[in-house]
Amino acid sequence: MSHKRQRQPKLLRMTAVALAAASISMAASAQQSLRFAHVYETSEPFHKWALWAADEIEQRTEGRYTMQVHPASSLGKEEDINEGLELGTIDVIYTGTQFAGRSYGPIGIAGAAYMFRDFDHWQAYADSDLFQEIAEGYQNATGNVPVALNYYGERHVTSNKEISVPEDMRNLRIRVPNAPLYMMFPRAVGANPTPIAFDEVYLALQQGVVDAQENPLPTIRAKAFHEVQDYINLTGHITDSLITIVGGPRWNQLSEEDREIFREVFEEAARNNTEEIVQAEQDLVAWFEEQGTTVNQVDRTPFREAVMPEHLGDAATWDEETYERLQAIGQ
């Protein structure tokens, strides 16, 4: 009798431990770990706000989802991470509209040279029904879901010679990202566009593989391209964007409540990215000049006039109605 009384508390303790372990195991299995991949440096706002978004999603979903952010092409080049969405090996990415346009042509319109008059035109498009319609078209075509549009900045040409008119770019070997729409501007002005992966550009410039490259001022600073280029020519040829996209395999697993949380968080992160890039563009001209880089103010009119005929040319992956609607926004 006493022997049984001694064993019972021990049995209860063992049962309690087993139940606690099972509860922890169930909680761990219920928690989903996501991967957010991008090609940008840890010093850039895009990474900072991706980390913020990861924390917010974990908090707002009460720990149902955690997210690891993989910067600086650590999970592959931009083509690779786009493919990762389709495969379900990556859950969230930032990508240029030109890369997204490989899968659904109309979404690339925002990445065409001189498509926007200025930042205000870009912002009006980002907030428009047209962008929402195009995003839905991309989702229908790919299964992946664009949830926010981030301002990436005006792209400018860096080089080792001054570029002031389109003729200055004739035969210039200029690095561009590996998506067809990035070719529109250099081809229109007689340059030779050369696709090179983002993480290889500094070395390509340093070794003279290419003569020039083009990116927004914050990216030029983050990647230190000014160290291997003498001039920043303010061509402003693309008012560029990054789309935050959630992969279809992951999106389809989310409840409606969690989908709304993801949208809200990534839209807020995009607004914060946009504000920081706008401010950086205002501040960086003086900073580059302090570093000894020549910042060349350019009359963009002849460059724009060289490119405009291409907007509905062979490279266009959108129809005339979409183009006219975009041009009418904000008028």
UniProtKB/TrEMBL annotation:
<dbReference type="InterPro" id="IPR018389">
    <property type="entry name" value="DctP_fam"/>
</dbReference>
<feature type="signal peptide">
    <location>
        <begin position="1"/>
        <end position="30"/>
    </location>
</feature>
<dbReference type="GO" id="GO:0030288">
    <property type="term" value="C:outer membrane-bounded periplasmic space"/>
</dbReference>
<dbReference type="GO" id="GO:0055085">
    <property type="term" value="P:transmembrane transport"/>
</dbReference>
<protein>
    <submittedName>
        <fullName>DctP family TRAP transporter solute-binding subunit</fullName>
    </submittedName>
</protein>
<dbReference type="InterPro" id="IPR004682">
    <property type="entry name" value="TRAP_DctP"/>
</dbReference>
<keyword id="KW-0732">Signal</keyword>
<comment type="similarity">
    <text>Belongs to the bacterial solute-binding protein 7 family.</text>
</comment>
<dbReference type="Pfam" id="PF03480">
    <property type="entry name" value="DctP"/>
</dbReference>
<dbReference type="InterPro" id="IPR038404">
    <property type="entry name" value="TRAP_DctP_sf"/>
</dbReference>
<keyword id="KW-0813">Transport</keyword>
